Amino acid sequence: MSRNENARNRGPAWWGWPRLSWLLLWACLQLGGLSHLRAESDPLRIPPLPTATAAESATSDSPLRFRRVFVPRDVLDQVRDPVPYFPLNAAEFEKMVAATNRQVFFRGQNARIVTAIYRANVRENDLIGLEGEWFVELVNGASAILPLGKLTIGLSDPVWADLGGTQVSLLTDREGNSSLYVERSGKVGFRWSARGQVVGGTGAIRFDLALPPAIRNEVELYTSDRFDVAAEGALIFPMSSSSGGLLGHRLVVSDPSRFKMVLQPTRQQKQIVPHGDYHEEIAYELTMEGLEATWQWSLDVLDSPLDALTIVIPQDFRVVEISLGDVALPWEYLKEDNSPTSTVRVQFPEPLMGRDRRVTLRGIASLPLDKAFILPTLRLNQLFWRSAVATVIVRAPLTIHDLNLRSARLRDVSNPVAGSLGTVLEVIHDSPAAETEIVCTISAPEIRQTAVSKVTIGRSEVQANVRLALQGEGTSCFELSWPITPGWSILSVTSSDDSLLEDWQVRDGDPQKEKKTLLVRLKRGLPTENETVFTLTARRDSPDWQGSVFLDEMVPLAASSWPPDGRLYVSLLLDPALAESNAIELEPDVEPVGAAEVNTLVRLQETATSNPVFELTELTVRPRIRLAPKQLRYLAQIDGTVQLDGPNLLQSFRIGIE
After folding, report:
1. Total domain count for the chain?
2. CATH, residue 173
3. CB–CB of 195/120 below 8 Å?
4. Tell me: the pLDDT tens digits for 253-263?
5. Contact (Cβ atoms closer than 8 angstroms) between residue 409 and residue 161
6. Strand 423-429 vs strand 186-195: parallel, antiparallel, or unpaired?
7. Residue 431 reports pLDDT greater than 90
8. What's the predicted TM-score (pTM) here?
9. How far apart are the C-alpha atoms of 444 and 479, rounded to whole Å?
10. Is residue 270 scored above 60 in pLDDT?
11. CA dihedral 141, 145, 147, 148 (to 10 degrees)
12. Range of the domain at 588
């Protein structure tokens, strides 16, 4: 158990703790209310919280029931329940519970708002609401009128956010009371705004808001560090941005029908007044090479001309070009030390005015694989953000392993059959601080592959000619990859279909382990109706042959990474100079494939061969090879003559050796 150090309330003076007072540390919210009110006689005994029984469930007369535990300040660390604890004045808590009981649920009501979230920016003296959310529960019946009360905020465009934007009926009676006509439970999205009033001489803005009744109410203010927030009857939490700065404040409100809030400027210098509004469309393209992103901003500059534009970007994002329509614009980086962001200044050829002025920015960034990565977001300083739609394209062979959205929602997902788009996401940003966190991995291509590697061993180098028969299966494959055996260098890659091969490259991996990968990129998907033959040539330095080497080390493509349903064959031969006095020996001696299987590989051999062919993917042992001197056998033929001449013995011989 720990105190939440980020929680604070800058409201009235009652927030201070009396030195000798007990601290109320726990209020457990149940589905229909809170657990039974109870005080512990022994403050050091803190039993686990029980589950509310049916007899203790909330009623319309007393919708919230709770249990409280008093704990001395010096034993806070002994509370065992793994939940957040907030220090709170006991009398103030009683006021908050009473206020919640007054508004949370009306007698006979068949629908209610379980959770309400209101997001807003501050513009001049007003709250300009971003999209708000109501999580509505239909308790009884097929439909209901959900009372919202007499509101002091402006509401517009309520839709079922989880039904693709189906409109929800917003009703108003003669007395100014608003209500919703609901036929289901679900998430309602809407636009909202509220007027503020400047109070005092410091520029503070006061808001007296009447919001609809809900069990849980939150207000998210995207004020960055421009304002300090004080509110009566609310817990205030700072919201941090991904770069570590202050994004704004989140307020948990106890009584939304009488919510008062004051925003106090933190700086006395003149605040930047936006020149206008902007909407943005973002296209992210994620490939093996990295991330390429394009922003297209639609600017409405109506208040005063805009001479230049400053854009806040992440440090690890690099701008490539910026244009106004078809005209390229000059831009420069403004130096900022020790900051997680950079600022780019764009100069317009003439002051910018009017509606729907289109500015486009394109940039690049690296894309880490197999770990979380937040897609970069940009911010225009002189303009007020209105909306954003992002299209995220994840090109094959990359696939999405995980996706998390913050202040954003997923509107559509598609996997086009044709082309190399892979997966396409459409994401709606609900605030300028929206974040899309994604984890990308390389997917194994669905292909059938058979390879024959013909290896020629010389005194100084080893050469290999590898022919691969590939055929696609299932989803289209646009990029092929094979780990390369350490020590080998790829010299060339060709295809039997010249219109299929786009290019190829060798990607470096761990330099200490000499890990490299051969990547072959295709112009279109790998054909599924017939085989395509790829040919690659490779070389490596010849071993010193003082000892033996593993057979698979003589093959350019790593046999250990070969797919289980694939086939990898190898045929070894010595060049003529080396073969005069040496032969290849295997330890242990393994059997080559039979003649019938060799005949099925004729399409992968340029010429017929009598050398033994081994299938590496079927071997149960890892054999070694070595060069052994040939054992020479000689055939000698001797012709001779023996002649006696008195006491002398004359002999003559003719010896022939083959």
Report:
1. 4
2. 2.60.40.1730
3. no
4. 888 888 889 99
5. yes
6. unpaired
7. no
8. 0.44
9. 10
10. no
11. 110
12. 447-629
